[in-house]
Each structure stands twice: as structure tokens, then as C-alpha cells.
Design goal:
binds zinc ion, 5-stranded antiparallel sheet, 5 strands, mainly beta
Length: 70
């Protein structure tokens, strides 16, 4: 099961999803999963987890505006 997010309902739901593959002229082979929202039947994209605070701190360390104390 994968997690999907319906932007219309602002609701997360789990579904097996349907995989789409396509060849992007710029990025090459791509794939994504879509699933139908249980409340309005809309096609929704897979929910991507937000970066954790730890990952954000690590990635911002190089920018010189980091508050991680290093
Ligand atoms: Zn919905």
C-alpha cells in the first residue's frame, strides 16, 4: 500500500495505486503512482513525505545560514 494525498479534500489515504511510466525528453524514464480518492473519485498523486528536520539541517549547513550549531 502507498499513501496518496487528495489536494481537493486535503486528505491522505492508502491505496495500491496504478503505476504510470513515461519517457520524458528532458529527464528520461519516469514513473509515478496515482490512485482514486475514496471521497470524490478524483485521481490523486502519491504523497511524498516532507524532509525531516535532520535532513533539512544537514542540507542547509552548506548554505551558511544554518542553526545546527556547527
Ligand atoms: Zn478527495
Amino acid at each position: 500500500m502507498k499513501t496518496f494525498l487528495c489536494k481537493t479534500c486535503n486528505k491522505k489515504f492508502e491505496a495500491a495505486g496504478v503505476r504510470f511510466d513515461w519517457n520524458d525528453p528532458v529527464y528520461g524514464p519516469c514513473s509515478k503512482y496515482t490512485a482514486q480518492c475514496p471521497c470524490n473519485g478524483e485521481e490523486c498523486e502519491e504523497y511524498k513525505h516532507q524532509m525531516s528536520h535532520k535532513e533539512e539541517a544537514v542540507s542547509s549547513c552548506g548554505s551558511g545560514h544554518c542553526s545546527c550549531g556547527r
